[in-house]
Amino acid sequence: MPATVVVGTQWGDEGKGKLTDLLAGQMDVVVRYQGGHNAGHTVVVGGETFALQLVPSGVLYPHITPVIGNGVVVDPGVLLDELDALAAKGVDASRLVISGNAHLIMPYHQELDRVQERYLGKNSLGTTRRGIGPAYADKAARVGLRVQDLSDPKIFRQKLEVAVKEKNAVLAKVYNRLPLDADEICARYLEQYAPRVVPMVADAVAVVHEALDAGRNVLLEGAQATFLDVDHGTYPFVTSSNPTAGGACTGTGVGPLAISTVIGIAKAYVTRVGAGPFPTECLDQVSDLLVERGHEFGTNTGRRRRCGWFDAVMARQAVRLNSLSEVALTKLDVLDVFETVKVCVAYEVDGERVAHPPYHQSALHRAVPVYEELPGWGSDLTSVTDAGGLPPAARSYVDFLAEQIGVPIRTVGVGPGREQFVTVAA
Ligand code: GDP
Ligand code: IMO
Ligand code: MG
Q1: Catalytic residue among 37, 41, 103, 232
Q2: C-alpha–C-alpha distance, residues 188 and 193, integer Å
Q3: Rg of the Cα trace of the chain?
Q4: Could you give the 3-state DSSP secondary structure of residue 106?
Q5: Which of 282, 291, 312, 308 is nearest to 372 (CA)?
Q6: What sign for the dihedral angle of Cα 174, 178, 184, 188?
Q7: How far is CA 324 from CA 216, 286, 398, 409, in A?
Q8: pLDDT tens-digit profile of 201-253?
Q9: Which residues pair with 419 in a beta bridge?
Q10: Is the CB of 13 under 6 A from ligand 2?
């Protein structure tokens, strides 16, 4: 049975957690394929809210095997806290499988993320300061520690001592910071974390392939989003991994032919946290209203999200970059009160109208959105349960987006709850 990918099509927080949870009802295995605890995936079930950072969003179903793939960067302290918080809410996550090849986030990664951001001053990226960039940098530089190293204290200490020596030199000489203590880190990781983490470590590639071979349903859950991708996003205002669908292959160990469906998640408008270009950003009361109605504050960091109208230019690019089979549209209900809703259908760049984002980032900064304005629907969608219950103007908005981006929209979110969605075929 081929796998399904869930991928964010904008700048994150599109509702990947909710969609993953929804689809997990039909799945057997849910694998996170990249990112770390920079992610905050919200699932609302029976009025209870779960904000997941590292644990795959399918965990709430007892039949699901949740897997943290090799492409993820894992802070074991955060993971254990998350597992404890889930247990306190009655969620049994003991089936969790962690790839031994996933890299560890170490205390010096967090420290470097903080000081590098501070050092950049007004050019800072607005990272989540969770150590994500420095951890992926060490992975690429081949000096990272991996989850499997937790089960070999000798190797762990050897690698750690080399890393801490170099990081301390950088922290002291470049950033004027106090050195970190390798012994303290060793004790924490090997004595406090390893006894609980190591029993969950397994050959995640085998787990996924055995499930696929047995005809079971596997969902590959992306974090962040297409335009935060280190290769295809608005570099340097990106994260340090590949959230695009290709990352689902490298981050779990399946080839492209093992994937049959790629579902892009898109908000009915657009949000972004942190710095970087955002052509349809609104800086007026539209933004305030979207923030207020959509509760647009970071799930983990609490930062206010920047907001703007739906951008079909970026969405078309997301279709290309991910081979999207379909789009799930979320938060349509947030637009309920607008008299009219705008959709960016093209950009004007240096007097020329373009249907795809310009390849040069400086041009993207100059891009002026070309909008079409559609009538609003002026009624509450949150209790709509089927396509027939959508007011004609809401339905027209969904159909217009599908036509603009060129792939079907099959699911429309009308509220945060697991049951608040409508199946359409736009
Ligand atoms: P993710 O990072 O992509 O999983 O998204 P987040 O969880 O960070 O942010 C999405 C927010 O929107 C969460 O608070 C969700 O509970 C909420 N949400 C998801 N779908 C809908 C929807 O259709 N309508 C409304 N009103 N809220 C939604
Ligand atoms: P989910 O999975 C929204 C943003 C940060 C910053 C940039 C780099 O919940 O959609 P990083 O800490 O990754 O080095 O920060 O990426 N960012 C996110 N924005 N949702 C996320 O995750 C994000 N993860 C990172 O705000 O601009
Ligand atoms: Mg989020």
Answers
A1: 41
A2: 7
A3: 22
A4: coil
A5: 312
A6: negative
A7: 22, 29, 17, 11
A8: 999 999 999 999 999 999 999 999 999 999 999 999 999 999 999 999 999 99
A9: none
A10: yes
Q: What is the pLDDT of residue 299?
A: 77
pLDDT value at position 298? 86
Q: Across-strand partners of 353?
A: 348
Give the three-state DSSP class for 382.
coil
φ and ψ of 380, to 5 deg: -75, 120
Give the closest residue (by CA) to ligand 2 atom 25: 38
**Which residues contact residue 295 at a Cβ distance below 8 angstroms, ignoring those fewer than 6 apart?**
none
- 141 CA from centroid of ligand 1 (Å): 35
- CB count within 10 Å of CB 14 equals 28
Beta-bridged to residue 144, according to DSSP, are: none
Contact 37, 296 (CB under 8 A): no
Do the Cβ atoms of 279 and 313 come closer than 8 Å?
A: yes
329, β-bridge pairs: 266, 412
Q: What angle do CA 297, 32, 68 make, to 5 degrees?
A: 120
Answering whether pTM is above 0.85, one says yes
Residue 127, φ and ψ in degrees, nearest 5: -70, 170
**Cα(77)–Cα(107) distance, rounded to whole angstroms?**
10
